[in-house]
Amino acid sequence: GPAHLSRLAGKCFSFVESTYKYEFCPFHNVTQHEQTFRWNAYSGILGIWHEWEIDNNTFVGMWMREGDSCETKSRQTKVHLVCGKSNKLAFVSEPSTCVYSLTFETPLVCHPHSLLVYPTLTEALQRRWDEAEQLLYDELITDQGYKKTLKDIFEEAGLLKVTEEKEVEKQNKKISLEFETVEKCSKEYKQLSKEIKKLKDLLSQHGIAYKGNSGE
Questions:
Q1: Are residues 68 and 29 in contact, defined by beta-carbon separation less than 8 angstroms?
Q2: Alpha-carbon torsion 88, 94, 96, 100, what sign?
Q3: Considering the entire predicted model, what is its pTM?
Q4: In this predicted model, what pLDDT tens digit does every residue of 146-191 receive, in sequence order?
Q5: What dihedral do alpha carbons 75, 81, 87, 89 form, nearest 10°?
């Protein structure tokens, strides 16, 4: 995520509400400790640093997931980063059972560009985003296709966690590229050649120059 937020790593911030003390350690975890003398006072993890929530080119929150179990699921917490004069945990709520919401104030997000996603990406990923933007503008992909491309970019950048199913799918794709026979390879090559021709024709129709060679 944003490089300037890394100075929060290794620090923890607490907030006490009625009999509970909450502790937020950015890029680490969120914990809750019951402040009573009961023999079975609760003390546990409400979530471990997992991924960002991204909306409209902005880091809108940090997801801390896979906390202590709660009935059939794990506890999880969304941390909202808001502009404030000092670093402090300002508010805690539980909008739905075992899903917590934390508001963290920090001067590190007061600049209007401090939570933009695009500048944190590598040049190659920025180029992919630019291309997707152009395709959407030219109506060559749907809004859904555009969102999927962005999700792939964010996953590749390590901002979003890749689901296990997707990991398996990726591995399977790699394996499926190894052909058992030359015949299968030729068949696949012909199929891809047809597809490339279609795409080249489409680019020509829209007046987009294509540079490449048959080896690619």
A1: no
A2: positive
A3: 0.71
A4: 999 999 999 999 999 987 666 666 566 555 556 567 777 788 888 8
A5: -40
